Description:
The complex is a heterodimer.
Chain A: E1 6-8, H1 18-22, E2 28-31, E3 34-37, H2 48-52, E4 58-60
Antiparallel strand pairs in A: 1-4, 2-3
Chain B: H1 24-37, E1 45-49, E2 64-67, H2 73-83, E3 88-94, H3 95-101, H4 103-112, E4 117-122, E5 125-126, E6 132-133, H5 157-164, E7 168-173, H6 177-189, E8 194-199, H7 215-225, E9 226-228, E10 244-251, H8 258-273
Parallel strand pairs in B: 1-2, 1-3, 3-4, 4-8, 7-8, 9-10
Antiparallel strand pairs in B: 5-6, 7-10
Amino acid sequence: MAIPTIEINEKYCKGCGICVTFCPAKALALExxxxxxxxxxxxxxxMQCELRCPDFAIRIS
Amino acid sequence: xxxxYEKYLRPGKLPHIWCPGCGHGIILKGLIRAIDKCRLAxxxxxxxxGIGCASRLPGYVDxxxxxxxxxxxxxxxxxxxLADPELTxxxxxxxxDGVAIGGNxxxxxxxxxxxxxxxxxxxxxxxxTGGQFSPCTPTGAFASxxxxxxxxxxxxxxxxAIGAGATFVARTTAYHxxxxxxxxxxxxxxxxxxxxxxxxxxxxxxGRRNKFKSPSDMMTWLKDAAIPVEKTxxxxxxxxxxxxxxxxxxxxxxxxxxxxxxxxxxxxxQRKEG
Lengths: 61, 274
């Protein structure tokens, strides 16, 4: 299975950390108050981060 | 897969003004997905709001939008719907705007059972004006104007709406992102007044005064406190204390819708005149 692309728009991300908390694969982390995909290969494409990002900052493809 | 929100957003408006971790953005996304599901045309949809954090929502979406006076979303929406009954009119607003300052307009729109969809983003506080307590602030909770805890009992928006005569009443939380668009879709398709209360976290004004250390803590509270209405059978008021009952709480297809009744009245009056 191809590794999903986790696009994070840093201009929109406010670093609330909701995506990091609810990622079941621990693929995301906060770095310098912005979300970052630290382990994209662990992503299971559950879309929980994209659905719950209040800032339109995450896209999974 | 990924949903394309861009086509419904006004270009150049993001990032929005809401604080980090505010659930309003999640509800906005739910609303956009619901509108997309209902295949509503942009120029045949109107989104109306009052004043407040939640009421900033229409500024971001590319529909006919009206940002009105505090608490008056339902009043403006009623006028718009009566003038053009084929228009889909959606009201958005917060708890303070909807059921405190606009409480009167809210109950009377419910009473008339006019075909509106009203999304109330209940974040338990007046966020924009500095964290004053609202009728939805839980008893004992802290706000900038209740430094010793809120002595007031809480307003139950759903029960208020049912009592006032709304014919579709549902509740969910900002955590339950997929349920938001499901319920809003049902609300839009329902003929009559649809109230969708979305319980939401305000990390800045409510959370930090009430031991929620982060936006994630608020989301975890929403996740844990929510209980689907199907599971509440046999539970007492006491068991449900502090819980957020989610799902479709009330649906009545029998009551007549206001615009239809008004059209009949107009027809009758014109026949008499003619």
